[in-house]
Specification:
Helix content is 66%, strand content 5%. It has 19 helices and three strands. The longest helix has 45 residues. The N terminus is likely disordered.
Length: 443
């Protein structure tokens, strides 16, 4: 009598625990999965916005600190090019003119502007308003135009670094005298010259045409720019043919065995090696063993070539892989040799990708500092290099040197040099993008 009730209860229990359909499980979790996706997209957008914000803050800070370097303060001074002082013999000998006392001319001109100043301490303050580079400007002017000797000319000469910083607002004149570099007596002299229209800010071409200097108002990036140009030119001449040749051999001709696998692994690993290691290698091999001169674009290019080769080889191999096998098969089918197939058909089609990788490698080399510090390109080089074996520095190293200087005038020079470097890097990457979009073929 009890068994029917047991069967009935068991049947009810079995129907209550029947498995749910798959669509019911999916619908139940759909809302939760959509919420997870929205959270992930929100976090991703926040991460991108934070990255852009930090980059914008960095760029704004650099521009705010560096844009003033492209203008320079000048002082209008009537200079008497006294013939007795400059050329006592009257022969206009270039050597005599070059060795004349141009600093004395500047001092005499400043005394004429302020004849009421006779105290020695006040005179020193008066002379300090003009840059020490003003004498060099007069020297270059006289050597270029000896006819100015014996005449009086109104000349705009460089102001001192402190005057320049004051006129650009980097020195607060409202601070107590003990807290600023310019004394109240110097401020009074400057106010008199400003009232007479003898001080103004002009476009600072010297920043782009001068070599470096220990005086911030005279310092320029011409030497570093030329050093970077020579170094990158040699780096391109060394790395491009070697990188393309290595990629072509490994991708098209080399047998697939453990040796080529080992080479490929090492190339990929070299792309991740810290750049300073290449500097140590260049110091040990190129300088100590082969005797390449220190601090020259030649040794810098050799080191940067080693550093950029993995990038160029990897990019070139990827470009070769993107060429369809049918191109090779068609060329071989009409009688071309394997070498002709590569140079006449495959390489021209892969060249846009190779050039893109090369430009990116050159941009990486342009911004490198650590390997060049190891081979002596940190030296203080005043002259602008005129060849591949002249002592030189490069723009990133010049930025490093200026950033270590305590003078306030070098702060704006550092930021301005960073702006120039970033401009070149953006331009090189833009060229790479244009080349890729213009010449790349999609198969």
């Amino acid at each position: 009598m009890s068994s029917p009730s047991i069967v009935s209860n068991g049947g009810a229990s079995g129907s209550a625990q029947a498995p749910r359909r798959t669509i019911d499980v999916v619908n139940a979790s759909l809302k939760r999965r959509h919420a997870q996706e929205r959270r992930f997209r929100f976090l991703g957008a926040i991460a991108v916005l934070l990255g852009l914000l930090f980059v914008a803050i960095l760029f704004i800070d650099i521009v705010v600190k560096g844009h003033t370097a492209f203008r320079q303060t000048y002082i209008h001074v009537p200079v008497d090019f006294d013939a007795v002082t400059l050329d006592p013999t009257g022969e206009r000998d270039p050597q005599t003119l070059a060795n004349a006392d141009y600093a004395g001319l500047i001092k005499a001109s400043m005394r004429k502007l302020f004849p009421d100043i006779t105290d020695r301490r006040e005179l020193r303050e008066l002379y300090a308003l003009v840059s020490v580079g003003a004498a060099q400007e007069l020297q270059r002017m006289v050597l270029a135009h000896p006819s100015v000797v014996g005449t009086t000319r109104d000349i705009w000469v460089l102001a001192g670094a402190d005057v320049d910083m004051l006129m650009k607002g980097h020195i607060d004149r409202d601070l107590p005298e003990s807290d600023r570099r310019i004394k109240d007596s110097s401020l009074a002299l400057l106010d008199r010259m400003i009232a007479d229209g003898r001080i103004e800010k002009r476009l600072n071409w010297g920043f782009l045409t001068n070599g470096t200097s220990r005086e911030p108002e005279m310092a320029g990036i011409a030497g570093a720019l030329m050093g970077s140009f020579y170094t990158l030119t040699l780096t391109l001449l060394f790395s491009f043919p070697i990188g393309v040749g290595a990629a072509l051999y490994l991708e098209e001709f080399a047998a697939k065995n453990r040796w080529t696998d080992l080479i490929e692994v090492n190339i990929n690993n070299l792309a991740a090696v810290p750049s300073i290691v290449f500097g140590l290698l260049g110091l040990a091999v190129f300088i100590n063993v082969f005797g390449v001169p220190r601090s020259t674009p030649l040794v810098g290019a050799l080191v940067l070539t080693l550093m950029t080769l993995p990038t160029i080889i990897i990019a070139s191999r990827a470009a070769l892989k993107s060429v369809p096998p049918s191109i090779r098969e068609a060329a071989l089918g009409v009688g071309a040799s394997p070498l002709q197939t590569q140079f006449h058909h495959v390489l021209p089609l892969a060249m846009p990708g190779m050039m893109t990788g090369t430009i990116i490698g050159m941009a990486q080399a342009l911004g490198e500092t650590a390997p060049l510090l190891m081979i002596g390109m940190i030296a203080f080089i005043v002259d602008v290099p005129s060849g591949f074996t002249d002592a030189a520095t490069v723009l990133p190293v010049q930025i490093f040197l200026w950033a270590d200087s305590p003078e306030r005038g070098f702060v704006e020079r550092t930021s301005a040099a960073i702006m120039v470097l970033l401009g070149f890097l953006i331009l090189m990457n833009l060229v790479a993008i244009i080349l890729r979009r213009r010449f790349e073929r999609r198969w």
